[in-house]
Backbone:
DNA sequence: CCAATAGAGAACTCAACGTTTTCTAACGGG
DNA sequence: CCCGTTAGAAAACGTTGAGTTCTCTATTGG
């Protein structure tokens, strides 16, 4: 049973460190995209990444930690909030970014992880911070600029109002599962976000 | 190995039909309350309900269907929307109801089920309808009465505005996991819901 | 009172978990 | 450039829970 030359895995090139890590993350995301978080198994990930289960478990204590890292690895850089010159344009731009994220593998991973980690407060806290902090933080920045421009009054800016847009969006993508078209985003902005900050939608240019 | 008289299960009283059903639902909810949805196993449910796995599988195809039914079984009757005489009072009352539901076993079951059923559109649709329809429907009724009373203009009532309050609440309970005190509910109502419907909070009596 | 129904419990197969072992490629210090 | 150390691949293993099937019997409707 000597393997044919070149097919014995022990003679094949072997990845390590960051290269192996990336291959594993890629495999995790491919599995989630293909079959969803619930159907993801460590064995399939290992096989897909041509890695061994032992390597996975040396790096992560289990499925949840692995998927969380794989999701973080796929997160775009949020450092720059949109700056289109109008509150309407900025909010629309931000929402488009958020939707892209939530509708993909990252959103699917978040729901799955959350359901599995509710019992573990530390893990749940990590997952929460994952997407939430960024959204509201960016909203604050955007609205802050609108206040500076004189587009809206500082007195109208409260935590709940900053959260309203992102909350509607998350609910739409994660709970209702309905498609989020640009017309939907405009409804959220024009019916909810702008009125809450005292901005008349029709006075604003198309975002 | 003849069992002592009275301990042979085959001679014990045996439940059927609705009685057994209730015992199983109770066991499911107790397991979720104790260890969460993720840790729930059919074997533990069977043991806790003093039922057999075969009985479980005769009634439900799997964990998800069982838990969904157990959650429905725990749903209060939503037929009557609150009617306190003011929009503010009605919205606060509704939100208090919703929070009680989401913070308990039902909320935990919903997140777990959702995460596990994303890949199955039919199942996901069932879960969505579970809590969502009711909330917005009740909001519509409440706001409709406010319009009839002349408290707010009919033109301000849109789908997105009706969803905003429930969305914030759901986000708070399910994603942030932070406690929802009455002060939080009042912020949601006074900062977001009432302004969206053109009602001045300070003109309203305490709900 | 009897036949049909449905439940309890146990045994079973299968899949995935998480661990351990063996062998060896890749890397780094001298 | 060699050699010891580190870390990866594959395979095998014990364990747990899923879902099924079997036997025996309590319950029930006729």
Residues:
């Amino acid at each position: 049973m000597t393997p044919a030359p070149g097919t014995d895995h022990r003679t094949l090139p072997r990845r390590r460190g960051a290269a192996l890590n990336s291959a594993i993350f890629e495999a995790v995301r491919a599995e989630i995209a293909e079959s969803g978080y619930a159907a993801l198994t460590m064995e399939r990930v290992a096989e897909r990444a041509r890695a061994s289960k032992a390597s996975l478990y040396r790096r992560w204590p289990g499925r949840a930690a692995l998927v969380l890292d794989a999701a973080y690895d796929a997160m775009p850089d949020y450092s720059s909030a949109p700056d289109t010159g109008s509150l309407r344009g900025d909010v629309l731009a931000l929402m488009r970014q958020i939707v892209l994220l939530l509708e993909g593998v990252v959103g699917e991973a978040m729901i799955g992880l959350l359901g599995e980690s509710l019992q573990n407060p530390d893990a749940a806290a990590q997952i929460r911070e994952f997407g939430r902090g960024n959204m509201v933080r960016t909203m604050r920045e955007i609205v802050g600029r609108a206040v500076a421009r004189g587009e809206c009054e500082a007195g109208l800016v409260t935590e709940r109002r900053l959260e309203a847009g992102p909350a509607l969006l998350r609910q739409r993508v994660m709970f209702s599962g309905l498609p989020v078209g640009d017309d939907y985003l405009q409804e959220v902005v024009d019916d909810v976000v702008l009125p809450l900050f005292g901005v008349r939608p029709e006075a604003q240019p198309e975002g």
User: Anything to note?
Assistant: The domain at 14-73 of chain A is CATH 1.10.10.60 (Arc Repressor Mutant, subunit A). Chain A has a mean pLDDT of 88. Chain A has two domains: 14-73, 87-203.
